[in-house]
Design goal:
This protein has 205 residues and is of the alpha+beta class. The protein has eight helices and four strands; from the N terminus they run ααβααβααβαβα. Helix 2 runs antiparallel to helix 6. The longest helix is centred in the middle third of the chain and has 19 residues.
Length: 205
């Protein structure tokens, strides 16, 4: 599939069939995902892969109590056979930028030295690679946050302190579903997005 096609076809899929994702295919998607840009080649993104029925069920037990599932809008999401929790270590960026070739930036002084926390930027690029790879492989994917359940999920799976969960990507074979509530919101036209030279410059000026 051409990249332009994957970009246009990509959307959040919230309903899955139960068929497993072949381990070799999953590994190839994760390998492609990790090849995203990384500031200073810090390479501090990791994947917690839950790909057994027991592991997936355990995740949902921690994040979506059974009483809430009765009214949950997307029951097909709970069927996804693979959940990938994308993790990042902010402290690794501080340590990397304290090394000799980066120390002049001052970013090794601590997390507060980063006006833009690039661990989130890099992790977002990793997630986008994973989402596009899923489209290319003929799979569905959905990114969603852990929010208040983050600490419980990390603790239950033995993730060391300091690591943060960027979000979870559900992967699997698509089942019929409906668009999310936000899907009808139009994208702004390109001329409204692009500012050339100055913010107040007309798009074709």
């Amino acid at each position: 599939m051409e990249l332009s096609d994957a970009l246009r076809r990509r959307r959040m899929v919230r309903s899955f069939g139960p068929d497993r994702v072949e381990p070799a295919l999953l590994d190839s998607l994760l390998d492609a995902a990790r090849r995203a840009p990384s500031a200073g080649r810090t390479e501090a993104t990791r994947f917690l892969v839950l790909d057994t029925p027991e592991a997936v069920a355990g995740y949902w037990d921690l994040t979506l109590a059974p009483a809430r599932r009765v009214s949950f809008s997307w029951p097909g999401l709970l069927v996804a056979p693979v959940l990938v929790v994308v993790l990042v270590d902010p402290a690794a960026y501080v340590a990397r930028y304290a090394e000799a070739d980066k120390v002049a930036t001052g970013l090794g002084a601590g997390l507060d030295a980063w006006s833009v926390p690039y661990w989130w930027v890099d992790a977002g690029a990793v997630v986008q690679n994973l989402l596009l790879g899923a489209v290319d492989a003929g799979l569905g994917a959905c990114l969603f946050g852990l929010f208040a359940a983050e600490d419980a999920v990390l603790a239950a799976h033995g993730v060391p302190g300091g690591w943060r969960a960027v979000g979870t990507v559900a992967l699997g074979h698509r089942a019929p579903d409906r668009a999310g509530r936000s899907a009808g919101r139009p994208r702004p036209p390109l001329g409204e997005v692009v500012h050339r030279g100055r913010w107040d410059q007309p798009p074709n000026g």
